[in-house]
Structure formats: structure tokens, C-alpha cells
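Q: How would the C-alpha cells look for this protein?
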Amino acid sequence: MRSALFSAENLEKESQQPGMRLQNSKMLKIELNGEAMARVGSMVAYQGQVQFQALGSGGIGKFLKQKLTGEGVPLMKVTGRGDVFLADLAKDVHIIDLEPGDALSINGTSVLAFDSTLNYDIKMVGGMGFAAGGLFNCVFTGHGRIAITTEGTPVVLNVDAPTYVDPQAAVCWSANLQTGYHRAEQLGLGTLIGRRTGEAFTMSFAGQGFVVVQPSEERPGHGGGNQQQQQQGGLLGGLLD
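A: Here is the predicted structure in C-alpha cell form.
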């Protein structure tokens, strides 16, 4: 049987080392020898002796925070020995290696999988007040790999000057950056009569680090925020810190 489908670029990529690697730009392969954490429903294929266990948001504390904030990652624990292939709606997949001392703040909808050696919690995004839906993010720390997804090829902005990003396009950033609210749209007569730019506000970033921006804005209800977050932001700020 012959077809371009069977070209080398489409064949399964083998390795002698366990762990995460890209099968292609849209699919993650985990050569499993132990356990890993993955987004619920992201498995598209597996080989070997592998078990899947639903974990909700990763524990009762994170479950409660997710219910209150709308943020978090619906997780499953993947255990055993074999090859597991993960994907999410054909989004682009990227792997980030975290070292001790690193901290990554990421929109929960962009998390595909991560090593069980990493820790994460749901934190309020500082300086945003009630202005944005994306009031809460997942913060990852520890030593290990995390696979994230973007809708399209992202740009990584080096924050060496005041930086402003649409909150629905911000995928992740260095957790040590100072975040805030910046009004991008000027108020005036045009605003009062309904003329809007669609860019009412942006997130601001300052300090030393990076911001990953995707060329797509998460649709309302698919990102990290909603009206419930705004209503509960003041109450939860103290609880989640």
C-alpha cells in the first residue's frame, strides 16, 4: 500500500527516553513510565498498559476554587507504561521546561498536560480588580515539563518596556511580572452614542519576564473569566492569596 499519508513526517516518533515530546505541531506524545497529568478528554490514542483516573481540578481545594472562580484545569491522572497521544481541537502544542524557582501563570484553558512533579494553584491576577473576566489564573511551579496549547502560532513578548495585551489573547506569562488594568479606549462622545473600538481595556505587564500572546481571542465563556468571577472577585481575593 502506498500513500503520502505514510511519509516519515506522519509516522510515530520513537525515543529511548520517557516523558513528553511533540509528535507534531498539533499532538503531544507522552512516553509514559509512571504517571502524568492531562486535561480530561485530551487523549486521542494510546498504546500499552495505561490507566486513566479523573481528578476533577486536582483536589478538593482546587475543585472549590474552580467552582467559585471559573478557572482551573479539569484533570485526569494517566498512569502505567506505554505511549499516550494528546491533543485539543487541533490547537498548536508547545512544551515548556520549568526549573526550580520558575513560576508560570497560565490561562487554564491552555493547559494540555504536565509532569506530576509540578505544583499548581489558582491565584487572583494582581491589579485587575473587577475590570476583566480573566481575574484568576493557574500558577505552576516546581521542576518538570508542561504542555500548553495556543490557537495559532503565538508571539513571545519580552517585557523590557511597558507591555499591554488583550486579556483574551494572553496565554501565559512569567508569574513574577506585575499585572494591571489599562484603559485602551478613549472615552468621548463617540463612546456615549455607541461607537466602540472593541478594545475597552488591556492587561498591563511590567518587570522582567515574558508574555505569550496567541493570534486569537478566546470566545466569551471559553477563557478564564465570566460575570460570576467579577461578582466574587473581592470576596475571593483574600481567600485565594
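The chain has a mean pLDDT of 78.

The first strand starts at residue 19 and ends at 24.

Upvote if useful.
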